[in-house]
Amino acid sequence: MAGQQLKSVAGLLLVLNFCMYVIVLGIGGWAMNRAIDHGFIIGGDFNLPAHFSPIYFPMGNAATGFFVTFALIAGVVGVASAISGLNHLRSWTSDSLPSAATAATIAWTLTLLAMGFAWKEIELGIRNSRLRTMEAFLIILSATQLLYIAAIYGSVR
Predict the structure, then answer these.
(1) Cα torsion at 123, 109, 67, 133 (round to 10°)?
(2) Quick one: three-class SS letters along the chain?
(3) By C-alpha distance, which of 155, 121, 156, 135 is closest to 3?
(4) Which residues contact 33 (CB under 8 A, 6 or more apart)?
(5) C-alpha triplet 84, 113, 27: angle, nearest 5°
(6) What is the pLDDT of residue 22?
(7) Whole-angstrom distance, CA of residue 18 vs CA of residue 126
(8) What per-residue confidence (pLDDT) applies to 52?
């Protein structure tokens, strides 16, 4: 009986995490596109600024480039984790658990890494509302992904 309740909880968290990772990918894709379109143009006679970063983003602060890059990586792995988790929810056996748990754990650790850059970006300030939204989503995802991992492990006897 408890296994079926955990299956429902895991399913709800899986859908929530999938939607949030897709939103993170959308905002991160926008930020990456804007950085590519409006970044530095380096010519033959152009002198680089003293604190030049190869990961330059015209919006945000010095942590934005790292934050967006790792958020995109975490988002892609998170979506892949949700696909693996969907397969586990369909069968809900101990045979499908290792792949779902491993993918979810890798996605969670990458989300934690991106969340660390989000905290640094919050500390430095000067960011727009889209970046604030992505920061909030990654902070929430770090908790909900952990809850999802606990829910799928809780079903093991």
Answers:
(1) -70
(2) CHHHHHHHHHHHHHHHHHHHHHHHHHHHHHHHHHHHHHCCCCCCCCCCCCCCCCCCCCCCCCCHHHHHHHHHHHHHHHHHHHHHHHHHHHHCCCCCHHHHHHHHHHHHHHHHHHHHHHHHHHHHCCCCHHHHHHHHHHHHHHHHHHHHHHHHHHCCC
(3) 155
(4) none
(5) 75
(6) 98
(7) 29
(8) 61
Q: What is the mean pLDDT of residues 56-79?
A: 90
Of 1-5, 16-20, 97-101, 121-125, the least confident: 1-5
- Cβ–Cβ < 8 Å for 78, 142: no
**Distance, CA of 28 to CA of 35 (rounded, Å):** 10
pTM for the model stands at 0.88
Question: What is the C-alpha to C-alpha distance for residues 153 and 21, in angstroms, rounded to an integer?
Answer: 21
Is the C-alpha dihedral spanning 46, 52, 57, 60 positive or negative? negative
Tokens of 99: 């792949």
